[in-house]
Structure formats: structure tokens, C-alpha cells
Amino acid sequence: MRMWVWIAFVACSSSSSRSNDHEHTKETVVETKVGPLRVVEGPNGTVIETKAGPIGVVDHMPDNAQLMCSADYQVYPRAEIHVVPTFNADLQRYVGGYRCNTHWKAAIREARARFASQPTEDEGGGILQVFLDHGINEDQLRAVVGGKALRDAIPAALDALESGQLILQP
User: Fold this and answer.
1) The Cα angle at residue 86 between residues 55 and 113, in degrees rounded to 5
2) pLDDT at position 105 over 60
3) Mean pLDDT value across residues 9-26
4) Which of 71, 80, 115, 141 is most buried, judging by how many CB atoms fall within 10 Å of its CB?
5) What is the Cα–Cα distance from 163 to 48, expressed in whole angstroms?
6) How far is the C-alpha of 75 from the C-alpha of 65, rounded, in Å?
7) CA dist., res. 80 & res. 87, Å (int)
8) 81-88 and 93-100 as β-strands: parallel, antiparallel, unpaired?
9) Do the beta carbons of residue 8 and residue 20 sit within 8 Å?
10) 27: Cβ–Cβ under 8 A, 6 or more apart, which residues?
11) Which of the four pLDDT bands, split at 50, 70 and 90, describes residue 137?
């Protein structure tokens, strides 16, 4: 069984690259907060070499991909994972959290409660940005939240997510 790993965030400070015409590959070293990553682009795709081993990178997520729930750290088929706006305290912003069928509605409740306790433009904007970052275009979002005050727009967006009207993509 192959598990696809998706890199959601790499903080780059610098990079360098070189090409190898003989093998038709390009190698780039990216400096990150956790050390250098070697990225090799070749005829069979792109691979990121890490301390933990190589990670294959693809242009699209295969239907048989497996993803980890960020609540119970178990691996589930893609069809059983939901992307939900989740506040990350370490980053101090909302991210698209991956939650399984058991945990995704609790994550929506958490987002609702956090926004209700601090209904600021920054808080609401962070939630809506997750929608835009995960496959919802501005027209789709506008159809749900357009013309509403921020206090009403965020609950409407979360309602649309919970009802399946909007589906965030991994």
C-alpha cells in the first residue's frame, strides 16, 4: 500500500539548482527551517529527498490516495477525509485541517466557536482564505457569503461546508 505525502508548507530561505543534461534531470537544493531539501526533477516526475526518505510529488492527487486525519493521526482513504478550516496555534492562522468522517464535524464546531468568541476581520478572513486555498473560487464563495455581514458570512460558509454545498479539496 502506497501512502502519498503532501507537503503543505515549506519555509524557504534560499535555493540553488543545477541541471544534468545526460540524464535529463534538474536538481535543486532548498534551504528550509528544518534543513536543506534536495528536489530532483526527472523524466519520471519530481522527488523530494528528505532525512526521512524520498517523497514523490504529483500534479494531482490520485483517487486512491490515503491521507492522515489531523485529529486521530490515523490514515484513511481520500474519500473519508474532509478539509476543514482549523486554527493552528503554532502558525497563529487557519489552515486546511484533514479530518476523517468521525472528526470533521467537531472541527467545524471548533471553527464556529473560535469565530464566535472573536469575530474580527482577521479571524473571518483567515477562515475564508482556507476556502480559497482549497479549491473554492471567489464566485462560489460569493454565492454563499455575498451581501452578508462578516458575523453572518462565516457561519454561512461553515454551514455550506457542513451540508456539502461547498467541498474543500486536499
Assistant:
1) 170
2) yes
3) 50
4) 115
5) 37
6) 10
7) 21
8) antiparallel
9) no
10) 17, 18, 19, 20, 38, 39, 40, 41
11) very high
Are 133 and 103 in contact by the 8 Å Cβ rule? The answer is no
pLDDT at res. 8:
33
- Residue 36: helix, strand or coil by DSSP? strand
Residue 50's nearest CA partner among 65, 61, 59, 40 is: 40
Burial class (CB in 10 A: 0-12, 13-18, 19+), 63: exposed
User: Model-level pTM greater than 0.85?
Assistant: no
- In whole angstroms, what is the distance from residue 77 CA to residue 98 CA? 12
Q: What DSSP character marks residue 74?
A: -
**Which pLDDT belongs to residue 23?**
59
Helices assigned H by DSSP within the chain: 104-117, 121-133, 138-145, 150-163
Spatial contact of 118 and 111, defined as CB atoms under 8 Å apart: no
Q: How far apart are CA 67 and CA 114, in angstroms?
A: 26
Q: What's 80's DSSP letter? A: G
For residue 155, report the phi and psi dihedrals to the nearest 5 degrees: -60, -35
Rounded Cα gap, residues 41 and 27, in angstroms: 6
Look at residue 147 and give its three-state secondary structure: coil
Closest CA to 146 of 160, 156, 161, 131: 156
12: which 3 cell numbers? 524557504
